[in-house]
Design brief:
The chain is an alpha/beta fold. The strands form 3 sheets. A 7-stranded mixed beta sheet has the order 1-9-8-5-4-2-3, sandwiched between helices. Helix 3 packs parallel to helix 9, helix 4 crosses helix 8 and helix 11 packs across helix 13. The chain is globular, with a radius of gyration of 20 Å. The structure holds pyridoxal-5'-phosphate (PLP). Pyridoxal-5'-phosphate binds next to helix 4 and helix 5.
Amino acid sequence: MSAAASIPLFAHRPALEPLLPQVAERQRAVLDSGRYVLGPELAEFEHEFAAYVRRRHCVGVANGTDALTIALRALGVEPGAEVIVPAFTFFATAEAVVNAGARPVFADIDLDTNCVTAQTVEGVIGSRTRAIVPVHLFGNPAPMAELSELASSRGLLVLEDAAQAAGARLEGTAAGALGDAACFSFYPGKPLGAFGDAGALLTDEDEVAAAARRLRDHGSDRRWVHSEVGFNSRLDDLQAAALRVLLPHLDEWNAARRRVASLYTESGLGALVELPPETPGAEHAYHLYVVRTPERDRVIDALDAAGIESRAYYTPPLHRQPAMAAYAREGSLPGAERLANEGLALPMGPALDTQAVQAVTTAVADALGR
Ligand SMILES: Cc1ncc(COP(=O)(O)O)c(C=O)c1O
């Protein structure tokens, strides 16, 4: 981004600003209470977020990556088992599989949703496959009906990576209530973003929730007795207090994000680049607004010169990451390659107005000489 950038990539700060005094007040109460870890604010947030997603259990953990690792362990994915992940997602999805002792297997994404499908997953199921981790990429729900049907016919677990999709819905059901368990990240800038690292995992299964609570607290559910080796990964009460203030605003912010997406469509952007796909029946959370253009690098430079922040997401794809070399396989992954080569995140957030959107579209048109 140039020093003069006036339209930021993450345009959510003005929506957050009016709530900061309330956040500070709630956090001040936590400071006064002296209860910072596994305290009442965390318990309340877990209760409220579970109710929001309509799951029986929410277990707050330190970040979304730990939520995935702990969920895989809590679901009973054994060391050496294979877990299918998209070839195109943030690195943490596959990292968590490795950290849980399992092996990631990469399935291609379909550019009609930017997510894995039953077809791309089916092609990589093997005798050691234990679970599928669909990612609701950029906030767009994966096609969960066909994935769940495939999983149940093959006896596989489904763990949703909903890190980017708090508040998204599919046929009216919240992201996070569409698999055996689900993980969220509350990293700043996510649709529900804390003021530091935070995450959670959700499930309806009592045993999975109990295992996750144990694993986040050193594998212990009784003082000084550790039944397994776990993690130190609790969502701390200062973050939970903030999240409790923000959660009631999530739906209005996501609705505003969807309005911004409509403004981009109305601005004529679709004549210049490929617009982000939406899964049929989905309410997209638009964590990121990622278009595709073969001229990506030229557009980034031109937008930068015009004071507009944009960014390539993500490149290289997972199967070509140096740390994943041991898990890369023969065979092409054309959807992942294409999105890695052409994906471009443009400014998005509840605070963008028509003028800003038009300025972005005009700058893209100028960059492409149209
Ligand atoms: C798809 C996806 N999965 C997992 C994560 C990990 O979340 P965290 O950064 O909270 O560890 C992220 C966050 O960036 C993500 O985008």
